Amino acid sequence: MLESLITSKTRLRLLVKFFVNDRNQSHLRGLADEFGESTNAIRKELNNLTQAGILLKHSEKNKISYQANTQHPFYINIRDIIRKYLGLDMLLEQILERMGEVGQVVLVGDISKGIDSGKIDVVVTGENLNKDYIKSLTKRIEEMIERKVVFMLKNDRYESNGLVLFDTKIGV
To answer: For 78-108, how does the pLDDT look when each residue is reduced to its tens digit (9 = 90+)?
Structure first.
């Protein structure tokens, strides 16, 4: 659906890259390698998004890196649209609905880095998690968001890198 509004596949991939997780940053050549596209096509979209103030440009020695402008008035809106496009809102809702005493929901792997590989790795922490529900949830959520979902359940808090969607300790 979002593809009909944002017709440039490169622009959509850039928005996913930078707005799924505001800590993501990258440079032109890295993006070209990651997307398998020419640097010219990516440079054009980076320039457009930077001129609009949606992305910020940082110079580090001989490299220019880009990241989402969290101070832009539309930052939250764009982030929410991208997360909805990826199905993260439905994923979180389904987990919290009947999963048990959820402490955290953390995205790890490609999606936390802004790479829409078609697979979403999710760490769910908490006590007395409903393991039977997770089995039925996996298939249902995959059909809903049209992406493969891999759940990892843990009793203890998850302290490694990832994108925290929910955490009872920090009120997210």
So the answer is: 999 999 999 898 888 888 887 888 999 999 9
Type of residue at 162: G
Look at residue 172 and tell me whether its pLDDT is greater than 90. Answer: no
Domains of the chain by range and CATH? 2-77 (1.10.10.10), 87-167 (3.30.460)
Q: Which two tokens stand for residue 54?
A: 């949606």
Cβ atoms 74, 134 nearer than 8 A = no
Please give the Cα distance from 162 to 158 (Å, whole number). Answer: 9
Length of the chain: 172
pTM: 0.84
Q: Which residues pair with 73 in a beta bridge?
A: none
Element (H, E) at 26: strand 25-27
